[in-house]
Design brief:
Distance between the termini: 17 Å
Order of helices and strands: EHEHEHEHEHEEEEHEHHEE
Number of helices: 8
Strand order of the largest sheet: 2-1-3-4-5
Number of strands: 12
Structural class: alpha/beta
Strand content: 15-25%
């Protein structure tokens, strides 16, 4: 999953980003409400951690803008304020949950898992498709039929997670580039092709029947020879 952290305390934002990355999430940061809102509106994020007290646009304004634009991305609001009225204001503005500073990182992670589950994103220890099993904690891909497994690099892991969360769906090159490298990344489409090639080699190495199929002029599709799969 890709998480956006909108937090003007640089040190806290960096700590949160590192904590998410340790859990194998992708994490981007924005340090003011205006730039954070623009990033959120790209639609590439699975959840947003949003501080209330922000320069340029406060968290309530950001959230109202997102909901006005019909963005249904789950949002967890962070604030130093613990008053009931502030919590109610955040929830009424469209927040999915509310967490008061200071907080434990474990609680933040649990709350992120909770709000993404409500949107249908289920966090398990692994994702499966046919004879493939992706271990989300160890970053390995295995063939359940022959017990072969291989370690994935960071981008390979992110690519396989994207495919396994979108089984039998065509994912465009643009979607892959934005989801894995970020909206403002200077990564070119040949980066996508390079990592598709690396990942295909890993699938071949473990003897997987699932294949990453190129859909000419569009993107890629993870499929089984029969065209079916299971989650």
């Amino acid at each position: 999953m890709r998480i956006l952290i909108i937090e003007d305390e640089f040190s806290l934002a960096d700590v949160l980003a590192a904590a998410f990355q340790k859990e194998n999430y992708l994490a981007d940061t924005a340090y003011d409400g205006e730039s954070g809102c623009l990033q959120a509106l790209t639609g590439i994020y699975d959840a947003i951690v949003l501080d209330v007290m922000l320069p340029k646009m406060n968290g309530y304004e950001v959230l109202k803008k997102l909901r006005k634009e019909n963005m249904d991305t789950p949002v967890l609001m962070l604030t130093a304020k613990s008053e009931l009225d502030d919590k109610i204001k955040g929830l009424d503005s469209g927040a999915d949950d509310y967490l008061t500073k200071p907080f434990e990182t474990r609680e933040l992670m649990a709350r992120i898992r909770a709000i993404t589950r409500r949107k249908g994103i289920v966090e398990n220890d692994s994702l499966t498709f046919g004879d493939l099993e992706l271990n989300l904690k160890q970053c390995t891909i295995s063939n359940t039929a022959n017990s072969q497994s291989v370690q994935l690099g960071k981008k390979e892991f992110q690519l396989m997670e994207l495919f396994l969360r979108n089984q039998n769906q065509i994912i465009t090159r643009e979607q892959i580039a934005e989801k894995i490298w970020g909206f403002e990344s200077d990564a070119e489409y040949n980066n996508v092709e390079v990592y598709i090639s690396f990942t295909r080699r890993k699938l071949n190495f473990i003897g997987a029947t699932a294949r990453i199929k190129a859909v000419r002029g569009v993107g890629y599709l993870l499929e089984l020879p029969s065209g079916g799969g299971k989650k």
